[in-house]
Amino acid sequence: MTGSPKPRLIVHGGAGTWVGFDEASVLKAMRKAAEVGWEILKAGGSALDAVEKATNIMEDDPQFDSGFGSFVNAAGEVEMDALIADGSTIKYGAVAAVKRVQYPISLARLVMTRTNNLFFVADGADQLAAELGMPLVANTQMITPQEFEAFRARRAKNAVSQVGQGTGTCGAVALDANGHVASATSTGGVPEKRKGRVGDTPIFGAGGYAEDGLGGASSTGVGENIMRFFLCKRVVDSMSSGIGAQMAAQSGLEFLSARVPSPEAGIIVVGSDGSVGSSHTTSHMPTAWVTADGDIQATMKSIS
């Protein structure tokens, strides 16, 4: 890359059907997340700060399956996973099955920056959060009344319904003015998951990946399909051939679809060349991104 790169940012709210949600409200939330990240980048801030803070916005919004509003598991609890990746060092921080942290992505970053480890789970992750100064909250505080009622309805019908508060894993990918790339992904997992189940989100290379000189990616969807092929690393690696982010995103989902029937997946990508891309196999994936002119666009579909 020659000269100073133009910062870029893209965020997603999760691949799925998004049945029963107000599209205007979802897109407003996506724009807000993008705006928060973009203000950091415009001020010369880091890609890591941008993706963390953009993801925090979605973790606070009950429309998304991350943080407050996460799906509850089969035991009626929220168990959250998150991953943040730093393309300048090829390091990451990850947490899984955390129950008492309001912002799992921020805990993942502390794992990366303030420990000699990369991945913490369950009670150990919650304990680490407290030791590092993060306030702990009651697990019930992370469950919305709407999700609790949806949980009761699912149990009464002995079925898993995708309709309810929280429908998608959220994520963000950014390129800053110094050419550094970062990605963040946060989720509450699938509804009615067995206690202790972990999907692709906190798996480096599957739920997210970032590498300076190539790009970064964040995935969403059925984790059991995504993690088998380390989707995010595969997509980022494909940009070494010179293709842009949109082609890389589309090719990655085509690769997955050719190997997994109905993969139910989505991905967002930023290239080190400043290109952005998104693709999904589901009917919807709310996405917001910053154009080359600095405008923020949002859609319930992929960019193309």
Content of β-strand: 15-25%
**Mean of residue pLDDT?**
94
The topology string of helices and strands comes to EHHEEHEHHEEEEHHHEEEE
Question: What is the number of strand segments?
Answer: 12
How would you write the strand order of the largest sheet?
4-3-2-6-5-1-11-12
CATH architecture: 4-Layer Sandwich
What is the end-to-end distance? 25 Å
CATH topology: Glutamine Phosphoribosylpyrophosphate, subunit 1, domain 1
Helix content range? 25-40%
Question: Which class best fits the helix and strand makeup?
Answer: alpha+beta
Structurally, how many domains make up the residues?
1
Let me know the largest β-sheet.
8 strands, mixed
CATH superfamily: (Glycosyl)asparaginase
Descriptive notes:
The chain has 304 residues and is α+β, with helices and mostly antiparallel strands. The chain has one domain (8-299): Glutamine Phosphoribosylpyrophosphate, subunit 1, domain 1 (4-Layer Sandwich). It is built from eight helices and twelve strands. The chain has helices at 23-42, 47-60, 104-114, 122-131, 145-157, 223-226, 231-238, 245-259; strands spanning 8-12, 80-86, 91-98, 119-121, 170-175, 181-187, 208-211, 215-221, 265-271, 276-280, 287-290, 296-299. The strands form two sheets. The protein has an eight-stranded mixed sheet with strand order 4-3-2-6-5-1-11-12. A four-stranded antiparallel sheet has the order 7-8-9-10. Helix 1 runs antiparallel to helix 2, helix 2 runs antiparallel to helix 3 and helix 7 crosses helix 8 (245-259). It is globular and about 55 Å long.
